[in-house]
Design brief:
With 803 residues, the chain is α/β, with parallel strands linked by helices. Helix content is 34%, strand content 23%. β14, α15 and β15 form a beta-alpha-beta unit. It is globular, with a radius of gyration of 27 Å. Bound molecules: zinc ion (2 copies).
Length: 803
């Protein structure tokens, strides 16, 4: 949701050069031109639409008092679809006014029918509170909007249940509070006309799969009371939002994606740092039987140093961004640089300050780092200084992305692709003052996805590429959700269709386990207590992070992630503050840490074994087979590397002694016949390196197809797998039961592997680098890898696979 906020400040006049001239000066610095593409994103005038005829005068007047004189075209279109009873998702850019698209039909209905109710769901309490303010400010008679979440005082809850007609809550409260207490909510649910799901793209992966079933439970309770609410969803720009929204709700959903809101013009450059001269360092070859690349959780400390023990690397994106920041500041251009980690932001600011002070002593003072750890007042002060020109350059993590509306900058530098197009546009959207052109630069990190994107601008500026994925059929989600549903009301055969694929099997297993009992009227929950189901849990008991000196509990980490994030010696970031782990005590489920900010990051490595449990679906393509199925993954975190944050240089690798872990999940894999590989010119001795290199790049490019990052997925490749009896590359979801990523990869296999092939082939390196086939999290030290043979492998797959 977005609202015009009083905190939005526009920058004053700046003396800097125009964006096109600025870019010309920046790219003229080095020997080679680092710019791979310049996109002119034209200013867009908004397309207003008349108020829909069904919108009551009272409501139009209320919006007009809040400064909304007319809706934009997309708002009117989505609102009318919803008002006419169609489930609709509006998936448009930041600040395009998505909230009006659901407020309009919901509030019009509430005004027309004094008994009707609406339920609004946000992923966070803060967003629900914002939205409450916006709805309350309309001052509509008899709507009585109210937040109902964990912070709502007990004394107010009954009043809200009885009298509020616009209840704002979150999926966790719906799951833990409202649905189990449906008897108390029967009056509200019986009259429920609209369910609004804001920021629905955040319901992805395992969490999204849980929320999908919470919504099915809601629909079931409504149906029992005779209500069939219309669902209105708001999403960031994403690929195929109708399908994602349909999976989330279990309903047919129409998408509105044509953004008709106005925006300023931006010159957007894609920037690839140059390759550095070859280095003589080498790694010791240990040819493994199978090379695995375990999935590991996204660690902020891992975001900066993507270099490995390499032969050839590119200049680091951090250094490049620091230089660009210094240059734009020297030109008098107000610039914001987005850097993924806090430490990285500090490195960028420090390097830019140094460069500026070398040129003009004192000029460095006009650059600062924006840290998450600052107090709100300190942050405001920095923002004000930037907007008034006292500061000219700010290096920030994406803390700003969700914070105050700091807009109107002359230039935005984005150090590394932020993961999704939506985030990219959110960051780039900080550039541009009213009526003036601005510059945005995406600086590629040394990573296959970044490299692919700067060479394939159509993947950024063309149709949206990434889709929000979730997998409601995940048995690890479905079974506990069916148990929750059975507590709320006995399950009937008709309910099984509602909960979808796999529901019958899950019910049978719950019966066999003694959790459900079958009676003529349905399946009944057998226990006194309700099942404990955490929507955001990943299975496994969480590990507590405790500060040794004070005994203070800093937070918890998923059991599954703890080996990667909290091993002894790990650098662990918590709310922007850096800690080092003294000891991980798995028996007690806690990690003891102390505050320390070393100038290195840590990167855990694991070894992986994998066996096929079952095949869900496959494509037989002659010498090539493409499969989707369940697998068992056994992995063990065996060591970690320490790397300098500023340069990515590896300091050392230290062994770890941690137990193995088991994961049953979903994988996509392809096999090739040895004959087809030989025909393509891959020597038998090069097959392991060819497959391993293809696997790395395929993992790196999967985020192009689905909103995951490479830390959500793992892989394994081998010249002969006992279960497939062929050379095989596996890519699996790093979450128990799968999260939809492998399934999405299987569904888009040809496009995914085509992008993978192109990313490798187009990389300018000779033998492989982190921009193509090397992986920052390889369990085998990026060995063996054969870049030319990986292209041959993928050519064999692509020439046989149906498009
Ligand atoms: Zn390369
Ligand atoms: Zn590897």
């Amino acid at each position: 949701m977005e609202s015009s906020s009083a905190a939005t400040v526009s920058a004053g006049p700046g003396p800097g050069p125009a964006p096109v001239e600025l870019l010309r000066r920046l790219r003229a610095r080095g020997a080679a031109d680092p710019v791979t593409h310049v996109e002119r994103v034209p200013a867009r005038a908004g397309v207003p639409a008349p108020w829909p005829s069904w919108a009551p005068t009272e409501l139009r007047a209320a919006f007009a008092r809040r400064g909304v004189v007319a809706p934009w075209q997309h708002q009117a279109e989505a609102a009318t679809l919803a008002y006419e009873g169609q489930h609709v998702v509006v998936a448009t850019g930041t600040a395009s006014g998505k909230s009006l698209a659901y407020q309009l039909p919901a509030l019009a209905t509430l005004l027309a029918d004094p008994r009707a109710t609406a339920l609004y769901l946000a992923p966070t309490k803060a967003l629900a509170a914002d939205q409450l303010r916006a709805v309350a400010a309309l001052e509509l008679e008899g709507v009585r909007p109210a937040c109902y979440d964990g912070d709502t005082p007990r004394t107010e809850r009954e009043w809200i249940r009885r009298h509020s007609r616009f209840v704002l809550t979150n999926p966790d409260m719906l799951h833990h509070g409202i649905l189990p207490g449906h008897a108390q909510w029967s009056g509200f649910l019986r009259r429920l006309a609209y369910v609004v799901i804001d920021e629905c793209h955040t319901y992805r992966g395992v969490f999204g799969s849980h929320v999908a079933h919470v919504l099915r439970r809601l629909r079931r309770q409504c149906a029992r009371f005779g209500a069939t609410p219309v669902f209105v969803l708001a999403s960031a720009t994403s690929g195929d939002p109708a399908t994602a929204a349909g999976r989330l709700t279990g309903l047919p959903v129409t998408a509105v994606t044509e953004d008709a809101s106005p925006r300023g013009g931006v010159t957007f450059a894609l920037w690839e740092p140059p390759l550095l001269p070859p280095d003589s360092s080498s790694s010791s070859p240990v040819p493994p039987q199978a090379t695995g690349d375990g999935s590991s959780p996204p660690a902020p400390s891992q975001a900066t140093g993507d270099h490995d023990e390499l032969r050839q690397v590119r200049r680091s994106a951090l250094r490049e961004t620091a230089d660009l920041l210094a240059d734009t500041v020297a030109e008098g251009v107000r610039t914001l640089a987005f850097v993924r980690s806090r430490k990285g932001a500090e490195v960028v600011a420090a390097n830019a300050r140094r460069a500026l002070d070398d040129a003009v002593p004192g000029l460095g003072d006009r650059v600062a780092a924006y840290r998450g750890g600052y107090l709100r007042e300190e942050r405001r002060e920095l923002e004000r200084a930037l907007l008034h020109g006292d500061l000219l350059g700010l290096a920030s993590t994406n803390a700003l992305e969700l914070g105050v509306d700091l807009v109107g900058l002359d230039a935005v530098l984005i150090c590394g692709y932020p993961g999704t197009r939506a985030s990219l546009w959110q960051q780039a959207g900080r550039a541009g003052r009213s009526g003036q052109e601005a510059l945005a630069v995406l600086v590629a990190r040394d990573d296959p996805l970044d490299t692919y994107l700067v060479h394939h601008p159509e993947a950024i500026f063309g149709a949206p590429v990434e889709a929000t994925v979730l997998d409601p059929a995940n048995p690890y989600v479905l079974a506990p959700q069916l148990a929750c549903a059975a507590v709320e009301a006995p399950l009937t055969p008709a309910d099984l269709a509602l909960f979808g694929e796999g529901a019958k099997e899950a019910v049978d297993e719950l019966v066999a386990a003694g959790a459900l009992r079958q009676r003529p009227t349905g399946w009944y929950w057998r226990h006194r207590e309700r099942p404990e189901v955490d929507l955001r849990g990943e299975g496994g008991a969480p590990v507590a992070v405790v500060e040794s000196s004070t005994g203070r509990l800093l937070g918890t980490v998923d059991g599954g992630s703890s080996h990667f994030l909290l091993h002894s010696g790990a650098v662990y970031l918590h709310q922007g503050v850096s800690y080092v782990v003294d000891q991980l005590d798995l028996a007690d489920g806690c990690a003891l840490v102390h505050a320390e900010e070393p100038d290195w990051s840590t990167h855990a490595r694991d070894v992986t074994d994998l066996s096929v449990v079952s095949v869900r679906s496959y494509v037989d393509a002659g010498p090539v087979g493409m499969f989707l199925g369940e697998v068992d993954v056994t992995s063990q975190v065996v060591s970690y590397q320490r790397r300098r944050i500023a340069t990515g240089e590896v300091i050392d690798t230290r062994p770890l002694d941690l137990p193995t872990r088991e994961l049953r999940t979903v994988a996509v894999w392809f096999t090739l016949s040895p004959q087809s590989l030989a025909l393509a010119g891959v020597q038998p001795a090069d097959v392991p390196g060819a497959l391993h290199a293809a696997e790395h790049a395929a993992i790196g490019l999967l985020p192009l197809m689905a909103t995951c990052d490479r830390w959500d997925i793992g892989g394994l490749s081998t010249a002969l797998h006992p279960d497939t009896e062929a050379p095989t590359v596996f890519v699996y979801d790093g979450h128990p039961g799968g999260a939809g990523f492998a399934e999405r990869a299987y569904g888009t296999a040809a496009a995914w592997l085509r992008a993978t092939r192109d990313a490798i082939a187009e990389c300018g390196c000779e033998t492989g680098c982190p921009s193509c086939v090397q992986s920052p999290k390889c369990g085998n030290g990026n060995n063996p890898l054969s870049k030319p043979d990986a292209i041959r492998v993928l050519d064999v797959v692509l020439s046989n696979l149906p498009a």
